Amino acid sequence: LMTLFREKTSAYIEEINDYIENWLSDGQIPPNNLHQAMHYSVMNGGKRIRPLLTFAAARSLNIDHKMLMPAAASIELLHCFSLVHDDLPCMDDDDLRRGRPSTHKAFDEATAVLAADALLSLAFEILSSDLSFNGTKEINASLVALIANATGSKGITGGQALDLNAEGLVLDQTELEHIYRQKTGQLLRACVLSPCCFIDVELQKTTALERYADAIGLAFQIKDDIIEAEGKTEEIGKSSHSDIDRAKATFPKMFGLSHSKNRVDDLLHNAKDALSVFGKDA
Fold it and tell me: Which regions span the lipid bilayer (predicted)?
C-alpha cells in the first residue's frame, strides 16, 4: 500500500514463503502422500496477497511486520485449506488451480480432504505456539479468536455453504454481496485487524481498516467473476466458465459485465477513501 512497501513486496513474499516452508513437514516423512499434498497445496505459486495485506496493515500502524509473521502464515494456510476444499468435485469441481492440477487431481480426493484438514490444524498450531515474534499468549489468544471467526461458519466456511446453496437461484445484489463478504471478505478483514491485537488502536483507524477490507474483498471477488466470464483457461489458471457450468450465482450473470465493472471501480474508490485517515503514504 505504501511506496516503500511495494518495493519490498518480493522480499516479503520470500520471507513468508520461507517461514511457511519451515513449518511444513518434509514429503519424505510418513505419511508421505499427505505431507506432499500439503506442500503442493501451499507452495504452488500463490501471490500471497493475504500475508502482504497483513504486513501492510502492520506498517500503517507502525508495527514491525515480523510480529505478524505467525498470523500472516496462519491466514495463508487457511486460505489454501479453503481452496483445496473449494476445488473438490462435491464443491466447485475445479480441476485446475493456478495453472496446475488441483490437489485432488494431482493426488486423489481423500488425500486432498486430509491435506486441507491438516493445513487447518497447522494454521492454528502456528498461531498458538509460536511466541518468538511477540512473546505473549494473550496476543496469540486474540489472534486465534479473530482468525477462527473468519474461518468458521461466520466466515469462509459459511460463505462456501451459502455459495453452494445459491446455485441455480436468482439473487439480488445485497444477497450476493453478503455471500462474498463471508467467502472472501472475512479473511481479508482478519488480515487488516490482526495488527490491532498488538496495540490499542483508535476506533477511527480500526473502522477505516474494516471499511478497506470490506471494499477490496468484494472488489476482489467480483473481479474474479469478471475474469472467469471473459477469460480463457490458460489465462486464468483454472477452468474457464466453471461457475456458469454449475449455475453458480455470480455478479456478471446476475447484473451484467458493465454493472460488475462499475461496481469494482466504486469499491476500489471506497477502499482508497477509507485509507485517507492514515495520510498520504497509505
Answer: none
Predicted structure pTM score: 0.92
Strands 100-101 and 96-97: antiparallel
Other CB atoms within 10 A of residue 267 CB: 21
CATH of domain 3-278: 1.10.600.10
Q: What is the pLDDT of residues 131-186, one digit of tens each?
A: 777 668 888 889 999 999 999 999 999 999 999 999 999 999 999 999 999 999 99
pLDDT under 50 in the chain at which residues?
1
- 16 burial type by CB count under 10 A (0-12 exposed, 13-18 middle, 19+ buried): buried
Give how far Cα 136 sits from Cα of 22, 127, 196, Å.
Answer: 22, 12, 14
Number of neighbours of residue 134 by Cβ within 10 angstroms? 21
Domain ranges of the chain: 3-278
Q: Rounded distance, CA 142 to CA 252, Å?
A: 38
Distance in angstroms (rounded) separating the CA atoms of residues 105 and 148: 28
Sign of the torsion formed by the C-alpha atoms of 167, 87, 114 and 77: negative
